[in-house]
Amino acid sequence: MNETIRNNLQYLIDKHGDMYDAYTNYGKQVHTGGPLDDKTIWLIKVAISASNKLDYALATHIKKALDAGNTREEIEHVILLTAPTVGFPNMMESMLVLRQLFGETD
């Protein structure tokens, strides 16, 4: 999955560099323009991507949440919290993404 994400991103950068730069700048402004700390921001991003079944985004956001200092347990709790709103099967798919990142699945 990581190689697929990197290759697709590189394609976007090569073909649409100006758009990618604008999007990156927008993302930086959104992340730094409010009162939330990085740990909280990335947990929210995990919840958003998990709720919308965005597996590649979820994998990226889980990694960034870990880099921001969140624990696996905190991330797993956020994924569990999505079940009452978006459904148990959706939450289980997100849990699988988390477990795959930690090498816990075949």
| CATH level 1 class label of the largest domain | Mainly Alpha
User: What is the number of helical segments per DSSP (H or I, 4+ residues)?
Assistant: 7
Specify the overall morphology.
Answer: globular
Decide which structural class fits the backbone.
mainly alpha
Proportion of residues in extended strands: under 5%
- Give the strand tally: 0
Domain unit count: 2
Sheet having the most strands: none
CATH architecture of the largest domain: Up-down Bundle
CATH topology of the largest domain: AhpD-like
Question: Could you give the distance between the termini?
Answer: 14 Å
Mean pLDDT: 95
CATH superfamily of the largest domain: AhpD-like
Low-pLDDT residue intervals, each spanning 5 or more residues: none
